[in-house]
């Protein structure tokens, strides 16, 4: 993969969608991947398709102890971590006047506090090694606002700030921290968004899909493997790319 190969990787939200695509893309000979999400059977289904050593760690990212548990388990068994991909997340929509405290807190806990805890757990290990690559799956919602997703947008803006500050802190130690900021990606999360819009508006599902596709500059949903290829590029980079949010949206958002 690079002069630091082989890699010991951790991927959160690894059981489907973008996370599963990242795992499959990184699963080349010589590498080891620890997969985490809540649903063990789904993680096993992904891990079983791979021909490299894997570790399956079922855990809820909302639990404040999860990041330490996952990172410690990998360090104990594999002696370190070279790449951490913080991907687990969810977007729930509501107009701001109907965004209750529970929804607000859920979005902040899952999309901002959980990534913070993963960075806090992994960075000392990587600094000690003198090498590490961290990639957070953020969103174009980290860069621009949009209606009906204020809590998600606030959390995703926050996580890009976390990435930028952490990058400056760890750069002298051979560690990089970057974000990938996709528009709408063709995953179960986006299919759920379409279902929600259809059930609230009665619109035709194909028409809703086209509306979401037009949110990207090239009029298409992003494919999970496109996000995965960008993650791999950031992991393979020798260290010059740090603290960046790489936008994948067909050209609409420029930041
Ligand atoms: N889809 C998009 O259009 C899009 C666009 C921009 C950014 N993103 C971001 O990309 C990331 C992945 O999205 P996706 O579209 O691949 O979503 P997805 O298809 O719904 O997959 C989400 C993954 O996260 C895991 N997960 C969810 N809640 C969790 C929790 N509390 N603890 C641990 N794991 C949890 C899920 O597994 P379990 O349910 O088994 O836990 C699953 O593996 C998210 O951070 C999302 O915000 C997505």
What does the model show?
The chain is of the alpha/beta class and 255 residues long. The chain has two domains: 8-183 and 223-248, Rossmann fold (3-Layer(aba) Sandwich), CATH 3.40.50; 185-221, no CATH class. The chain is 46% helix and 15% strand. It has eight helices and seven strands, in the order βαβαβαβαβαβαααβ. The chain has a seven-stranded parallel sheet, sandwiched between helices. Helix 5 links the parallel strand 5 (132-137) and strand 6. Helix 1 crosses helix 8 and helix 6 crosses helix 7. It starts with 7 loop residues before the first strand and ends in a 7-residue tail after the last strand. The model has no long low-confidence stretch (mean pLDDT 96).
Question: What characteristics describe this protein?
Answer:
255 residues, alpha/beta, binds NADP nicotinamide-adenine-dinucleotide phosphate, Rossmann fold, 7 strands, seven-stranded parallel sheet, 15% strand
Describe the structure concisely:
By secondary structure, this protein is α/β, with parallel strands linked by helices. It has eight helices and seven strands.
Distance between the termini: 29 Å
List ligands, each type once: NADP nicotinamide-adenine-dinucleotide phosphate
Supply the helix-strand structural class.
alpha/beta
Low-confidence stretches: none
Provide the β-strand percentage band. Answer: 5-15%
User: What strand line-up does the widest sheet have?
Assistant: 3-2-1-4-5-6-7
Tell how many strands the DSSP assignment holds: 7
> What would the average pLDDT be, to the nearest integer?
96
How many distinct folded domains?
2
The top level CATH class name of the largest domain: Alpha Beta
Number of helices: 8
CATH architecture of the largest domain: 3-Layer(aba) Sandwich
Globular, elongated, flat, extended or rod-shaped: what is the shape? Answer: globular
Pattern of helices and strands: EHEHEHEHEHEHHHE
